[in-house]
Amino acid sequence: MGCTPSESLLASTLECFYDQSCINLIQTMAGYNKNITPIPLNITNSRFLVNTTVMNLINDLFIEKWSTIMNYSSYFNRCSPMICSYTYIQQLDSFYTLIYLLGLYGGLTIILKWISPKIVYFINKIYQRRKKTISSIEPIPTIQGAAIEIMDANNINNTTAPSQSENLFSISSNYWIIDLTVFILVTIGILISFIYVRQERKNHPASTGTTCLMIFIIE
Fold first, then answer.
1. Fewest CB within a 10 Å sphere: which of 13, 25, 52, 154?
2. Domain residue spans in the chain?
3. Taking all residues of the chain, what is their mean pLDDT, rounded to a whole number?
4. CA–CA separation, 192 vs 108, rounded Å?
Protein backbone atom coordinates (compact mmCIF):
# COMPACT_ATOMS: atom_id res chain seq x y z
CA MET A 1 0.00 0.00 0.00
CA GLY A 2 1.10 3.55 -0.71
CA CYS A 3 0.28 7.00 0.57
CA THR A 4 -1.54 8.00 -2.63
CA PRO A 5 -3.92 6.05 -4.91
CA SER A 6 -1.32 6.03 -7.69
CA GLU A 7 1.32 4.50 -5.41
CA SER A 8 -1.18 1.84 -4.30
CA LEU A 9 -1.96 1.03 -7.93
CA LEU A 10 1.71 0.71 -8.87
CA ALA A 11 2.36 -1.59 -5.91
CA SER A 12 -0.64 -3.84 -6.67
CA THR A 13 -0.85 -6.83 -9.05
CA LEU A 14 -3.29 -8.03 -11.72
CA GLU A 15 -4.01 -11.39 -10.09
CA CYS A 16 -7.74 -10.65 -9.95
CA PHE A 17 -7.96 -10.37 -13.73
CA TYR A 18 -6.78 -13.99 -14.08
CA ASP A 19 -9.82 -15.27 -12.06
CA GLN A 20 -13.34 -15.20 -13.52
CA SER A 21 -15.05 -15.04 -10.12
CA CYS A 22 -12.97 -12.02 -9.11
CA ILE A 23 -13.89 -10.28 -12.36
CA ASN A 24 -17.60 -10.98 -11.72
CA LEU A 25 -17.25 -9.53 -8.21
CA ILE A 26 -15.73 -6.35 -9.62
CA GLN A 27 -18.63 -6.08 -12.08
CA THR A 28 -21.18 -6.44 -9.27
CA MET A 29 -19.47 -3.86 -7.04
CA ALA A 30 -19.11 -1.42 -9.93
CA GLY A 31 -22.77 -1.81 -10.96
CA TYR A 32 -21.90 -3.04 -14.45
CA ASN A 33 -25.25 -4.34 -15.83
CA LYS A 34 -24.38 -4.95 -19.51
CA ASN A 35 -24.62 -8.50 -20.77
CA ILE A 36 -20.93 -8.79 -21.56
CA THR A 37 -18.77 -11.42 -19.94
CA PRO A 38 -15.12 -10.36 -19.76
CA ILE A 39 -12.59 -13.05 -20.54
CA PRO A 40 -9.90 -13.52 -17.85
CA LEU A 41 -6.25 -13.18 -18.73
CA ASN A 42 -4.36 -16.29 -19.85
CA ILE A 43 -1.14 -16.95 -17.99
CA THR A 44 0.13 -19.47 -20.54
CA ASN A 45 0.59 -16.87 -23.29
CA SER A 46 2.34 -14.30 -21.10
CA ARG A 47 5.94 -13.96 -20.06
CA PHE A 48 4.91 -12.13 -16.89
CA LEU A 49 4.04 -13.90 -13.66
CA VAL A 50 0.64 -13.59 -11.99
CA ASN A 51 2.10 -11.66 -9.04
CA THR A 52 4.01 -9.16 -11.21
CA THR A 53 3.40 -5.62 -9.95
CA VAL A 54 1.96 -2.89 -12.11
CA MET A 55 5.21 -0.93 -11.69
CA ASN A 56 7.19 -3.75 -13.33
CA LEU A 57 4.64 -4.01 -16.12
CA ILE A 58 4.94 -0.27 -16.78
CA ASN A 59 8.73 -0.50 -16.83
CA ASP A 60 8.42 -3.18 -19.53
CA LEU A 61 5.75 -1.11 -21.33
CA PHE A 62 3.30 -4.06 -21.08
CA ILE A 63 5.12 -5.62 -24.05
CA GLU A 64 5.00 -9.39 -24.25
CA LYS A 65 7.41 -9.76 -27.16
CA TRP A 66 9.70 -7.18 -28.74
CA SER A 67 10.57 -7.92 -32.34
CA THR A 68 13.39 -5.81 -33.77
CA ILE A 69 14.13 -5.61 -37.48
CA MET A 70 17.10 -3.45 -38.44
CA ASN A 71 16.96 -2.04 -41.94
CA TYR A 72 19.70 0.52 -42.55
CA SER A 73 18.75 1.16 -46.17
CA SER A 74 15.20 2.04 -45.13
CA TYR A 75 16.55 4.32 -42.42
CA PHE A 76 18.79 6.21 -44.85
CA ASN A 77 16.02 6.48 -47.44
CA ARG A 78 13.56 7.86 -44.92
CA CYS A 79 15.80 10.13 -42.87
CA SER A 80 18.33 11.08 -45.59
CA PRO A 81 21.16 11.96 -43.18
CA MET A 82 23.96 14.15 -44.47
CA ILE A 83 26.62 12.32 -42.48
CA CYS A 84 26.88 9.07 -40.54
CA SER A 85 29.25 8.62 -37.62
CA TYR A 86 29.76 6.37 -34.64
CA THR A 87 31.61 6.78 -31.38
CA TYR A 88 33.25 4.29 -29.05
CA ILE A 89 34.85 4.54 -25.63
CA GLN A 90 38.04 2.56 -25.14
CA GLN A 91 39.81 2.09 -21.84
CA LEU A 92 43.52 2.89 -21.73
CA ASP A 93 45.53 -0.13 -20.64
CA SER A 94 49.22 -0.65 -19.82
CA PHE A 95 50.06 -2.20 -23.20
CA TYR A 96 48.55 0.75 -25.10
CA THR A 97 50.42 3.19 -22.85
CA LEU A 98 53.74 1.39 -23.46
CA ILE A 99 53.25 1.32 -27.24
CA TYR A 100 52.25 5.00 -27.21
CA LEU A 101 55.34 6.04 -25.23
CA LEU A 102 57.69 3.98 -27.41
CA GLY A 103 56.22 5.51 -30.56
CA LEU A 104 56.51 8.99 -29.09
CA TYR A 105 60.12 8.31 -28.07
CA GLY A 106 61.04 7.10 -31.57
CA GLY A 107 59.38 10.06 -33.26
CA LEU A 108 60.99 12.62 -30.96
CA THR A 109 64.40 10.96 -31.35
CA ILE A 110 64.26 11.18 -35.15
CA ILE A 111 63.02 14.77 -35.16
CA LEU A 112 65.44 16.03 -32.51
CA LYS A 113 68.46 14.30 -34.08
CA TRP A 114 67.66 16.16 -37.28
CA ILE A 115 66.94 19.57 -35.78
CA SER A 116 69.35 19.70 -32.80
CA PRO A 117 72.59 19.94 -34.87
CA LYS A 118 71.12 22.83 -36.82
CA ILE A 119 70.14 24.60 -33.62
CA VAL A 120 73.63 24.14 -32.14
CA TYR A 121 75.21 25.28 -35.43
CA PHE A 122 73.18 28.49 -35.56
CA ILE A 123 73.85 29.21 -31.88
CA ASN A 124 77.59 28.71 -32.45
CA LYS A 125 77.55 30.99 -35.51
CA ILE A 126 75.75 33.71 -33.58
CA TYR A 127 78.21 33.35 -30.69
CA GLN A 128 81.27 33.56 -32.98
CA ARG A 129 79.88 36.58 -34.84
CA ARG A 130 79.11 38.33 -31.58
CA LYS A 131 82.59 37.52 -30.27
CA LYS A 132 84.22 39.00 -33.39
CA THR A 133 82.06 42.11 -33.09
CA ILE A 134 82.95 42.69 -29.44
CA SER A 135 86.70 42.10 -29.80
CA SER A 136 88.62 45.27 -30.65
CA ILE A 137 91.68 45.54 -32.89
CA GLU A 138 94.56 47.57 -31.43
CA PRO A 139 97.49 49.01 -33.56
CA ILE A 140 100.84 47.29 -33.02
CA PRO A 141 104.17 49.21 -33.42
CA THR A 142 106.42 48.20 -36.30
CA ILE A 143 109.29 46.83 -34.22
CA GLN A 144 106.95 44.96 -31.88
CA GLY A 145 104.98 43.65 -34.86
CA ALA A 146 108.19 42.38 -36.51
CA ALA A 147 109.19 40.66 -33.29
CA ILE A 148 105.77 39.04 -33.02
CA GLU A 149 105.98 37.87 -36.65
CA ILE A 150 109.41 36.30 -36.00
CA MET A 151 108.11 34.60 -32.88
CA ASP A 152 105.03 33.35 -34.75
CA ALA A 153 107.22 31.99 -37.56
CA ASN A 154 109.40 30.15 -35.06
CA ASN A 155 106.45 28.76 -33.09
CA ILE A 156 104.12 27.89 -35.97
CA ASN A 157 105.01 24.19 -35.75
CA ASN A 158 104.43 24.18 -32.00
CA THR A 159 100.94 25.73 -32.29
CA THR A 160 99.66 23.44 -35.04
CA ALA A 161 99.15 20.42 -32.79
CA PRO A 162 97.31 22.29 -30.00
CA SER A 163 94.98 23.94 -32.53
CA GLN A 164 94.04 20.53 -33.95
CA SER A 165 93.38 19.14 -30.48
CA GLU A 166 91.25 22.18 -29.70
CA ASN A 167 89.21 21.59 -32.87
CA LEU A 168 88.66 17.95 -31.93
CA PHE A 169 87.65 18.99 -28.44
CA SER A 170 85.23 21.57 -29.88
CA ILE A 171 83.64 18.95 -32.19
CA SER A 172 83.26 16.44 -29.35
CA SER A 173 81.76 19.17 -27.16
CA ASN A 174 79.22 20.00 -29.87
CA TYR A 175 78.19 16.34 -30.18
CA TRP A 176 77.93 16.07 -26.41
CA ILE A 177 75.69 19.13 -26.31
CA ILE A 178 73.52 17.69 -29.10
CA ASP A 179 73.13 14.35 -27.31
CA LEU A 180 72.34 16.05 -24.02
CA THR A 181 69.73 18.28 -25.67
CA VAL A 182 68.08 15.30 -27.38
CA PHE A 183 68.02 13.33 -24.12
CA ILE A 184 66.49 16.20 -22.13
CA LEU A 185 63.80 16.92 -24.73
CA VAL A 186 62.88 13.25 -25.13
CA THR A 187 62.67 12.83 -21.35
CA ILE A 188 60.42 15.87 -21.05
CA GLY A 189 58.19 14.58 -23.86
CA ILE A 190 57.86 11.14 -22.25
CA LEU A 191 57.03 12.65 -18.85
CA ILE A 192 54.38 14.93 -20.35
CA SER A 193 52.83 12.02 -22.26
CA PHE A 194 52.83 9.80 -19.17
CA ILE A 195 51.12 12.49 -17.09
CA TYR A 196 48.55 13.05 -19.85
CA VAL A 197 47.75 9.33 -20.14
CA ARG A 198 47.32 8.96 -16.37
CA GLN A 199 45.05 12.01 -16.28
CA GLU A 200 42.90 10.59 -19.09
CA ARG A 201 42.63 7.29 -17.21
CA LYS A 202 41.44 9.14 -14.10
CA ASN A 203 38.85 11.07 -16.10
CA HIS A 204 37.34 7.86 -17.57
CA PRO A 205 37.34 5.29 -14.75
CA ALA A 206 34.00 3.73 -15.66
CA SER A 207 34.64 2.96 -19.31
CA THR A 208 35.24 -0.77 -19.77
CA GLY A 209 35.82 -2.51 -23.06
CA THR A 210 34.54 -1.01 -26.26
CA THR A 211 30.98 0.16 -26.80
CA CYS A 212 29.48 1.40 -30.03
CA LEU A 213 26.59 3.81 -30.49
CA MET A 214 24.57 3.17 -33.62
CA ILE A 215 21.23 4.43 -34.93
CA PHE A 216 18.65 2.14 -36.51
CA ILE A 217 14.98 2.13 -37.41
CA ILE A 218 12.40 -0.38 -36.22
CA GLU A 219 9.69 -1.48 -38.60
1. 154
2. 5-66, 92-156+167-203
3. 71
4. 13
